[in-house]
Amino acid sequence: MSRSQKKLTRVGVFYDGNYFLHVSNFYNYNHDRKRRISIAGLHDFIKAKVAEEENTEAHLCSIVEAKYFRGRLSAKSAKEKDNRLYYDRVFSDILMSEFVQSQHLPLRSSYGRLEERGIDVLLAVEAMALAGLDQIDVLVLIASDGDYVPLVRKLPALGVRTMILSWNFEFEEDGGRMSVTRVSQDLLNWSTYPVDMTSIIDDPLEDEEPLVDELFVSHDSRHEEYREDYETSRVAEEVVYEDDEDPQTSEVMSLKNGFGFINWPDNNLFFYHGDVEGVDFKALRIGDMVTFTIAENDRGENIAKRVSLTHPDTADESAAYEEE
Description:
Blueprint: E1 9-16, H1 17-29, H2 39-54, E2 61-72, H3 75-80, H4 84-97, E3 101-106, E4 108-110, E5 113-115, H5 119-132, E6 138-142, H6 149-154, E7 161-166, E8 169-172, E9 178-181, H7 185-190, E10 193-196, H8 197-202, H9 209-213, H10 224-233, E11 248-255, E12 259-262, E13 269-272, E14 289-296, E15 302-309
Helix pairs in contact: 4-10
């Protein structure tokens, strides 16, 4: 078939949001690359990979549907969790900039814990609707759960091929615990095109290297999803503590992949990157004076919360994102 005769390959990209966020956090905090996954770069990679598998050309592979599925806190609950509403909105802007539709279900409380329920069903229903209406040729699924196996088994009967992007990795959490992520082998076995992203990223072929580099948010602010984070995180803002809080001041003693310790009598205080306010975690340096409150974790140990630079106006603006 000549180039002029080749048909357009219609691609749907469906994200299991919880899994994708876990993968992106791994590369940002635990992998040598120390960068998040770029939505734009991932979509370019997908089009190239689909073209390779479908024996066509990348410009003839069009992402006609892209949807991001995840549970979400209610507005009231998110408001109570400091900047959660703001960061949710920032990420929504990133998705919208790449024409990815957000599909949310409310998080449900179960025995005192918030749980995500029904996301796999919602994703499967949306995928089957597109397939039944003959709107996609290939579904690219960014997921790890074996619950998606029935969907992946059924779609070929409707003329839709499936591509699974899989990441398998492990890393040591604070306290020495190992966090292990594995994709369901059944999910990979039933997919038309299983793609081992871990191997491709860690050991790319020569012709894959440019695409792999673009998979990660660049230090160049020309990337849309990076620009928003860049502008908001490099400028430290003063954090206001409530009257009933008891802020303390000390210096950062150590920093690791996504967490650190603050110098404190008897037992230095652990803090997590998600508890840093007013400045990006990556902008912190050992020896910085920080203000924080003291709380207890689920093991009854003292930890630091609401960690902020004591003198935000002196923050090194270039520290968070060094030029390449």
